[in-house]
Design goal:
With 987 residues, this protein is an alpha+beta fold. The chain is built from 27 helices and 50 strands. The strands form 11 sheets. Strands 27, 28, 33, 34, 35, 36 and 37 form a 7-stranded antiparallel β-sheet that branches. A 7-stranded parallel β-sheet has the order 40-39-38-41-42-43-44, with helices on both faces. Strands 5, 6, 9, 10, 11 and 12 form a 6-stranded antiparallel β-sheet that branches. Helix 16 links the parallel strand 42 (722-725) and strand 43. Helix 7 runs antiparallel to helix 8 and helix 20 runs parallel beside helix 25. The protein starts with a helix and ends with a helix. InterPro entries: Glycerophosphate_synth, TagF_C, TagF_N, Teichoic_Acid_Biosynth. It is a peripheral membrane protein. One of its GO terms (molecular function) is CDP-glycerol glycerophosphotransferase activity. It is found in: Cell membrane.
Length: 987
């Protein structure tokens, strides 16, 4: 590459000849000027980043052979684009260098340096983004450790950066990037890499409004900005460009404020709230609208101009899914049998298109099962016949009325074709025209006008497609929602139930709110009148486990109704509710947002933490972190901040310590981090929302910090603070710095290198864990081998009583055996789908067994456990000790749960189908698990069932191992570990 023909010639003026426009589409390479006359050879798709670099090596060898052809025959511009595209394809491998070793790096460095260090290789780099330029340059220079610093910073802080003026005349907008990682690098970065190129300033735009205001006036709203630039310092132009004709219509732009933009922008340096806009389009006067011969089409073009002489243009490719429905509303016709509709996709963006109908109805009435369609306008084309058609169904013909312009049909025969389960069936209206052709029938009014003459809540209703064609939609029973409100404690929904005349009277609909992890049943449902109007009330607080009421778990709750014995049917919004979406409700413990999904605008309730729109932005978080790092408030020795698994629970050893402190030192203020207010907090303690203003203040000022994991990357212990690290289990699998590099990120490795230096005490369960954890985290203090406070309850005299209470909370009848399944997570993400086949296990074990599933906290938010009846999902159960006590046996794999459960003396089984891979490749073990496991290791669920049913044999075979296991790993779990910790730390 260093001696290639095109590089020898040089690339002066390359970017000056390129159009100063940046595409926001999927292709990340800027257009370098001339179109390529041919498709130049390239290897098959680059292999996915893997630990074995052999596949990449073969791909690079193939690439070099193709490069010889490109160097020899391709025009300069085509060659530049070819090499730039190859660099883009290699970026996943560059980023994966944090997961691989020197061999992988050497392979990449050899090729990348050939490209980057060519005569004018910097200009090839200008075709990729600034972070990619820096990482590729560091790779070319062999600076692997610096590359890891960049990757860690991007993972911690995101990809946004501040910009500053530059003297580089070739820089787009006369600006250069100032990424936050620059001061962290021991060596310099070539300044030219930081000069902005057109690819760094793509138009970033989104559609937020598409509404018809009447008389053919269309209101289009959205936002557009250039990343890294203040939108108020950019000029914004919007135009409609007629495709194929060249006609351009400039639109009058209204600049608007929209705080929600910053949520999508995810920029920690600046706000883009001023990037909003709206325009009004009179679709009746579009340039070229009246031209004969086919439909016209216009694209909405957005252009942004900076004071530095740079401009970029693009179409709007993305819509705000909460504010703009997937199927755009249909406006009024612009002339006889002609209307303008909206279309949008990622390739062509937002555009307007004319649709001309061969036949359009001006009358449509639906009364019960009778449908009337009329053609009363003098300009209407009167069909000879009218039909209802649906795939696979017999045609149903309308009857022409004596007026000659109206057609009527009884649609009740259509009910036989409607599928069970409340699903929709649609028929299109087809007209036989005087010219002998059969064409679909258009609607001569607007979509809202059709809703006025055909009740959208009716079982049988008329609709128009996105192109404005008429169709009939039928459900045997239609349930819709028209109002939503809250009264502080509940969500109140009102709606309608409708059936065709002659059908049995409707029954009250059974609704529910469901995520993949949680279900909320209504507290009441009642009729509001005799017309089918009903009300359903959902509580906003739950007492899911008998530990007291708390807020709903965060999630995306679909509004579903039961049909055919299962909650599967979505419920759409209509009327004022549809118009008002999205709706936002205020609650002390929750953020509630109601939105519509899909073409039908099916209702969804989004439940989150109680933060304002502004507080949810990356910008606000960045400012909060900066304020935390600069705090000067004194440390308060009377305050303890506890955190377990990032606030997902208030449990583990911190819970045992907290309870003991409550008894021994009640004057201490105990705060618990919670991820949301669905997390129950111990009695006498105060919940504090993670990354709230109050939490940042406590993180900076609490005299004592107790954590079983890591604090975020920005945490720095202040003088006067005491940090007690309890960790979250005796390790079988390798942890910390011992974790294989493929299973960690550059950010995590940097974090653990800092964390242990802040620990004042590392609490461990046993001597083995003390030695192992101290080495893995480079902890140079003396670990406190006190046993685990989280296991005190397992050895307490109250264990039997607590077992009975836990089983009662879980609804487990006396005499039933409880199997508790607690798998660990996998570095490859596989634990989201556990290896235990619950259906097979349930069938094999029989009705005497109840299965409980406790997912790992790292994948708790990804589990899908609702809508099944084979097991009880106890992932969110507040206290795992309750589960250990309630259980009669444990099934796990490589989880540290085995070291805790052994305190109970109850049987353990190990479902380990991936043992060889996990031990030898993915994670690795600290000891010979197969020889020490205190129970059978099995590969399949069938084998597990057999082993459990032969429990007596397993107990006999593994009794000696079990005793040795307890002696080695739980000798100090005697019920007094928390007291020992409190004595050591608080005296």
């Amino acid at each position: 590459m260093k001696s290639t023909r095109w590089l020898k010639r040089g690339m002066k003026g390359l970017l000056q000849r390129a159009e100063a426009t940046a595409a926001a589409g999927p292709a990340p390479v800027v257009d370098l000027g001339e179109p390529a006359p041919a498709v130049w050879p390239a290897p098959e798709a680059v292999p996915a980043p893997v630990r074995d670099p052999a596949a990449l090596g073969r791909w690079l060898e193939e690439l070099r052979s193709h490069a010889a052809v490109v160097d020899s025959d391709a025009p300069e511009t085509a060659a530049r684009q070819w090499y730039a595209q190859r660099l883009i394809e290699l970026m996943p491998h560059v980023e994966a260098l944090q997961h691989s070793g020197d061999e992988h790096f050497a392979l990449l460095q050899k090729f990348v340096s050939t490209v980057v260090q060519g005569t004018d290789g910097q200009e090839v780099l200008a075709a990729v983004g600034v972070h990619e330029r820096v990482m590729l340059a560091l790779t070319a220079e062999g600076r692997r450790s610096d590359l890891l610093v960049v990757l860690a910073d991007l993972q911690d802080h995101g990809r946004s950066y501040p910009t500053a003026p530059t003297t580089d005349a070739t820089a787009a907008g006369q600006l250069a990037a100032e990424p936050g990682y620059l001061p962290l690098l021991p060596g310099p970065v070539e300044p030219g890499l930081l000069s902005l190129a057109p690819v760094d300033l793509p138009v970033t735009a989104r559609l937020t409004r598409f509404e018809w205001a009447g008389d053919g006036i269309l209101i289009i709203g959205g936002w557009a900005f250039l990343p890294g630039l203040d939108p108020e310092e950019c000029d914004l132009d919007l135009e409609l460009r007629q495709q194929g004709a060249g006609a351009v219509t400039a639109l009058a732009v209204r600049r608007e404020q929209d705080p929600g933009i910053d949520t999508a922008a995810a920029d920690r340096w600046r706000s883009y709230a001023a990037a909003g806009f709206s325009v009004s389009v009179d679709t009746r006067t579009l340039a070229g609208l009246g031209q004969p011969g086919g439909a016209g089409e216009w694209s909405l073009q957005v252009t942004l101009r900076t004071g530095g002489g740079f401009s970029a243009s693009d179409v709007v490719r993305i819509r705000d899914i909460d504010r703009v429905p997937r199927r755009f509303p249909v406006g009024p016709p612009v002339s006889t049998r002609t209307r303008v509709i909206g279309l949008m996709d990622a390739a062509q963006g937002l555009r307007l298109k004319t649709v001309r109908y061969s036949c359009a109805a001006s009358i449509c009435e639906v009364e019960g099962s009778t449908v009337t369609v009329g053609f009363a306008d003098p300009d209407d084309v009167l069909p000879l016949a009218l039909y209802l058609e649906a795939p696979g169904e017999s045609r149903l013909e309308f009857r022409r009325e004596t007026s000659g312009t109206r057609f009527t049909v009884d649609a009740s025969p259509l009910t036989a074709a409607v599928p069970a389960g409340g699903k929709e069936k649609r028929w299109t209206l087809q007209a036989l025209l005087p010219n002998g052709r059969t064409e679909p029938v258009g609607w001569a009014g607007s979509g809202t006008g059709l809703a006025d003459v055909s009740d959208p809540s009716a079982a049988l209703r008329a609709e128009c497609t996105g192109y404005g064609y008429l169709q009939l939609s039928l459900r045997t029973e239609r349930v819709t929602l028209s109002q939503a409100r809250t009264d502080g404690a509940a969500l109140i929904l009102e709606g309608w139930v409708d059936r065709l005349p002659g059908s049995p009277a409707p029954v009250l609909p059974e609704l529910m709110l469901r995520t993949a992890r949680n279900e909320v049943l209504p507290s009441s449902t009642c009729w509001l009148d005799e017309s089918g109007r009903f009300q359903t009330v959902f509580p906003l607080l739950q007492d899911k486990w008998g530990y007291g009421v708390s807020a709903l778990e965060q999630g995306h709750y679909r509004v579903l109704r039961y049909t055919g014995g299962a909650a599967t049917a979505r419920v759409p919004a209509l009327g004022h509710l549809l118009t008002d979406l999205p709706l936002h409700f205020q609650h002390e413990l929750l953020s509630l947002e109601m939105v519509g999904e899909g073409n039908e605008q099916d209702l969804v309730l989004r439940v989150g933490v109680p933060r304002t729109t502004a507080e949810q932005t990356v910008l606000a978080r960045s400012r909060a972190v900066a304020a935390y790092s600069q705090t000067a408030e004194p440390v308060d020795s009377g305050v303890v901040l506890f955190e377990t698994f990032d606030g997902k629970s208030c449990s583990d050893s911190g819970r045992g310590i907290s309870d003991c402190l409550g008894d021994r030192a009640p004057e201490l203020q105990r705060f618990w981090t919670v991820a949301d207010f669905s997390v129950p907090v111990p009695a006498g303690c105060i919940p504090v929302l993670r990354e709230s203003a109050a939490w940042f203040r406590l993180l900076a000022t609490a005299g004592y910090l107790v954590n079983n994991n890591n604090f975020p990357h920005y945490f720095r212990k202040r003088p006067g603070q005491f940090y007690l690290q309890t960790w979250h289990g005796t390790p079988l699998k390798r942890v910390g710095a011992d974790t294989p590099i493929a299973g960690t990120t550059a950010s995590y490795r940097a974090l653990i290198a800092r964390e242990a230096a802040s620990w004042d005490i590392l609490l461990t369960q046993n001597e083995f864990a003390a030695e192992t954890l101290a080495a893995a985290f480079s902890y140079w203090g003396e670990p406190a081998v006190f046993g685990y406070p989280r296991n005190d309850a397992l050895a307490a005299a109250t264990a039997f009583t607590r077992r009975a209470e836990a089983r009662q909370r879980l609804g487990i009848a006396d005499g039933r055996q409880v199997l508790l399944y607690v798998p660990t997570w996998r570095d490859n993400g596989g634990s989201a789908n556990p290896y235990l086949d619950f259906e097979t296990a349930t069938a094999g074990l029989g009705e005497d067994y109840v299965l409980l599933y406790r997912g790992h906290h790292k994948f708790a938010a990804r589990r899908k456990t609702t809508g099944q009846n084979h097991y009880v999902d106890v992932t969110a159960y507040p206290e795992i000790n309750d589960l250990y006590l309630a259980a009669d046996l444990l099934v796990t794999d490589y989880s540290s749960a085995m070291f805790d459960f052994c305190v109970t003396g109850k049987p353990m089984y190990f479902l380990t189908p991936d043992l060889t891979q996990y031990r030898d490749s993915e994670r690795g073990f600290y000891f010979d698990f197969e020889s020490q496991a205190p129970g059978p290791l099995v590969v399949t669920t069938e084998d597990l069932v057999t082993a459990i049913l032969d429990n007596a044999a397993a107990r006999t075979s593994y009794a000696g191992r079990y005793r040795d296991f307890v002696h080695r790993y739980a000798p100090a779990d005697d019920g007094a570990a928390a007291a020992r910790v409190v004595d050591a730390v608080w005296g």
